[in-house]
Amino acid sequence: MKLYRQLGTSLGVIFVLILAGKMALPLVFSNNSLWLTTITLCVFLGVALFTYGQYAGESKGIKNNNVWFDGVSARGVLGWTMAILLTAFYVMLYWFPEYLGKATDQSGNWGIIALFDPLSYFFKGKPASEWFMYGTLYTIFILSLGIKFIVKYRHNRYQLVRTVVVMVSQLFLAYLIPEILAGLNYNDAVDAQGTYAGWYDTDIKNVWPLDYDFFNDWHLDAMQADAYQPLGMTYLFWGLLLFLVVTPLLTYFLGKRWYCSWICGCGGLAETAGDSFRQLSSKSTTSWKIERWMIHTVMVLVFIMTLVTLYGYFFEVYDVFGLSIYHWFQKPYGFLIGAAFSGVVGVGFYPVMGNRVWCRFGCPMAGYMGIIQRFKSKFRITVNGGQCISCGNCSTYCEQGIDVRSYAQRGQNVVRASCVGCGVCAAVCPRGVLKLENGPEEGRIKQNTVLIGADLDYLDK
Amino acid sequence: MAGIVIIGNGVSGITTARHIRKNGGTQSITVISSETKYFYSRTSLMYIYMGHMKLEHTQPYENDFWAKNNIDLVFDHVNEIDFSGKQLKMKSGSGIKYDKLVLAVGSKPNKFGWPGQDLNGVQGLYSYQDLQLMEENTQGIKHAVLVGGGLIGVEMAEMLRTRGVDVTFLVRESHFWGNVLPKQDAELIGDHMTRDHHVDLRLNTELGEILNDGNGKVKGVKTKDGEIIDCQFVGLSAGVSPNVGFLKNTELEIDRGILVTRLLETNMSDVYALGDCAQFKEPSVGRRPLEQVWYTGRMMGEALGKTLAGKPTEYKPGVWFNSAKFFDIEYQTYGEVRSVVPEGKSEFYWQHDSEDVAIHLVFDSLEFKFVGINTFGIRLRHELFDRWLREGQSVMYVLEHMKDANFDPEFYRTYEQEVADAFNKEFNKNVTVKAKSWKRILFGA
Fold first, then answer.
1. Residue B378 and which of A104, A345, B214, B427 are 20 to 30 A apart at CA?
2. Which domains does chain B have, with CATH numbers?
C-alpha cells in the first residue's frame, strides 16, 4: 500500500519535472501533444495510485490517520516546498506569463503554455493563452483530486453528491462550455468587419462581486457586441439576475453553501485539491477578528471600485474626483485582490494557511452571502443536545477556521457568516452531534445554558 | 483569600469552575492538575495517537480563557490533603490553602492482580501520560493483546491498527462489552472489528498471566485455557476505578469512590467530590452509584458549579444517554437498553442486510411503552428522545415519528418505513411512518 502511495507521489514529481523540463530543455520536450497527454496521465494516474494506496485496504469511514504526522498535510518540508512552488507559479501566471512560455513575438508560445497549444487549437483554432493553460490544469486537478475526495468520503452521501456537483460544475460550466462557445465564435472572436469583438466571462456561475470586472467597460461592451448576440446580452441579464435575485434567494433557503462548496470554482479547488490542508486554518478568536475586518473591507472596496467604474461607463469619463478610474480603482483592485489575494495567497498558501484563505478572508461574494446567511437564512448546523464530547475533530477539520466545538459543547446551533457548508465537521464528528440543515428561522439560534441530559430544573428560566 | 480549590482539570473539575463563574460566583478559583497545564478532552487521546489531532487541538478553550475568567491554573501534584488545616501539600513543596475543596480526581485503569501486570509494555489508557507511554511502548511492535471488552479496548484496537499492529482482543464475556450491549448489538460490532479491521477477537477468553521476557518486559500472555499468545504490548481495558488511593486513611468517607450526597457533598464540610471519583450514597432511581462517563461528569459539574455559586442544586440526571464510536460504527443510546431484556420488557431488533446499520428498541411488553433505544450507524436527535422518554410515549409513536428524529447528514439513505414494517410484522401492529415535521421537532405536538 505504501508502495502505491509512493508511486503516486512519484508521478506527481514527474509532472513537475516535465513542466520544468519543458521550460529548460525545449528541444527534448518539443512534441506538445505527447507531453500534454503525459502530464495529464501523470496527474490522473498518480492521484489514482495514491488514492488506492491510501484507502483501498481501509473500510469506509473517516480516516484522518497520520494527517498531523505527514509532511504535506502538517506543514512539513514537502508542504513548504509545495507552497513555494505554487506561489512561484501564481506570481508568474499573473505578472510574468512570459516566463511560463507566453508568446512575446511572432515565434509563438513556448514552455508550459505551448504544451496546451494543441488542445487550444482543438477547441478554438488558436494558440493557448496563459489562462487557457491555467483553466485546463485547474480542471484537471479538481477532477482528479475530486475522485480522491469521493473515495475518501465514500460512506457519506452528502459529500458524494456535493463533490460530483463541484466536479461537473467545473468541467462543464467553467471549462467546456466557455471553450466551446469561444470555438463557435461566441466569445474572444473577430467579427464580420474583421475587428476584435472582445472577451467576456461565459462561466454562468462566475458572478459579480467575485467576478469583479463584470461591470468594467470592456466587459460590458463585449457582452453587447453584435457578434455575440443573443448570447452576450443573455449573459449580461443573467449576471445581474444572479447577483440581485438568485443569490439572495438561494442563500436564504440553503445557506451560502449552494455556491461556496457546491458550484464555485475557488471552492471547488479548495474542496478537492485543498482537502489535505483544511486542518491548517487557524481557529483562534484573533483570526476570526481579522477575518471579519478583512472580508468586509474587500467587499466595500469592490463596491466602491464598481460604482466608480459604472459612473465612468455611463457618464463616459475616465476620472472621478480627479483620480483616474483605471489607475486608482480598477488596477489596484485587480492587482491586490484579484491577483495577489485570490490567486497567489489564496492557492499558493494552501499548504501553510489552509485551503480557504481567500474564501475566508477575501472573497466579496462570500462576504455578501455571509451577511445573508448570518441574518436571514434557513440554514444552520444543528447541534445535537448534550452529545458533544469536546473532542475537537470538528474545529480541527473546519477549513473556514470556525471553532465549531465551542458551539457544539454548549449546545448552541452554529450560525456563522463564514460557514461554507462543506459538511466535514458533521462527517468527522464521532458522536453524531452536528447536522447541516435548512429549517424554520424561528429557533435557528438557540442556546441551552445547561445541556440536555440533566434534570430540567437545571435550566435557567 | 483561599477560595475554591479544585483538584483535577478534567471535564468534571473544569465544568464546575466554569459554572461557578456562569452563575455569578466571584470567589477565587484555583484548578490544580499534574496531568496537563490546560484542560483537554480526554475522549480524544486516541485521535492524537492516530494523527487526527495534536494535543493543542483537543483543548476546548484558548489558553487565555482561564485568565479572562479569573480561574487560576496550577500545574502541580497534590501529595496529601490536610483536611483539618484546610491545606494541600504539593509535590513542589508548597502548600495551598482552601476554603472549599472540590475533588475531581478521576479514575485509574483497573488491574485485577494478574501476574505480570506491572511489566514494561503493560498499561491502561486514561491520562495524557498513559498516551505518551503507549507511544513509547508501541514503537515498532508487531503484536498487541488487549484485555477486557470495553470502550477503551476498542479505542486502543483502533489506534494500534492505524500503526499496522496486529491486535488480539481478549473478552471474558460471550460477547463484546457484554455488561452493557445486548448480544445482537455486540455481534454487529464484533463482526465489524473482525471482518473490516482484522482484529482477532477472542470471546469467552480470560487472561491468565502476562509473560516476562526475562528483562522485565512483556513477551506474551497466557490465557486461562493455557494458550500462549506472543505480543510486545498488553493494553488493559477492564474498566476504571476511582483514583482515591492517596485519600485512604483520611477522615474522608470512601467506599469504592468518595461517598457523596446528591449535592455532591462528602462527609467533610466544605469538601465536595464529583465525576469518576465520586460514589453516590443514594443514587437516583435506575442509576448506578458510580457514573464514569464524560456526560455525567459534565452534568455533575453543572450542578456543583451552581451550588458553589450559592444556588444549592442536586445532581438529578434526566434520561440516560450515551454515545460511542466503534471503529467506523457510531453508536447512540437513549433510555434503558440492558444487555439482557428485563422481565416484563420486550425488544425489537432490526439490522440492515449489508450495511452496519442497526436499531434496537426496548419497550414494555404489555403497554408497549417505549423504554430505550440503541442505534448503530444512525444518528438521532437527542432532544426528541429526551422528550419522548419523559412523556412516556409508546414504541409505536416512536417508530411513527422516526423521520423527525433522524439526524443523519442530508442525502443519507434512511430506513424508517423498513424498520416499521419489520416491527409491524413481528408485533402485529400497523405503524405508518409520518413525514418529517419541523413543527413537531421544534415545538412538540
1. B427
2. 4-108+241-308 (3.50.50.60), 122-238 (3.50.50.60), 322-443 (3.30.390)
